[in-house]
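Q: I have 98 residues here and want to know how they pack in 3D. Can you give me a structure?
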Amino acid sequence: MAFDELVGIWFPAATCSFDVVISDNELPTISCIATVNQGNDIGQCDAVVTYTTPVGVDNCPGATTVQTTGLASGSTFPIGTTTNTFVVTDALGNTATC
């Protein structure tokens, strides 16, 4: 009910409501470094490799980057190819991979 002060009476009030939905349509981004080519350590069948760990970014706060395959920077890598994969996930579950 609403009160009309001009005529001094109560009358039924009409109400209206609606939702505003904002969607995050912008995916996070991540860029990997170029392939690392390195020889084995002297007298070893492997090598310690240090690289810059990729970090993803997003337009909204809360993005996290995790390594899903391969070895961390500073690890001992065996001879051959080791694929390192990183995934950034934003707060809404959108992902990007490198």
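Q: Anything worth noting?
A: The radius of gyration is 28 Å. The chain is about 0% helix and 30% strand.
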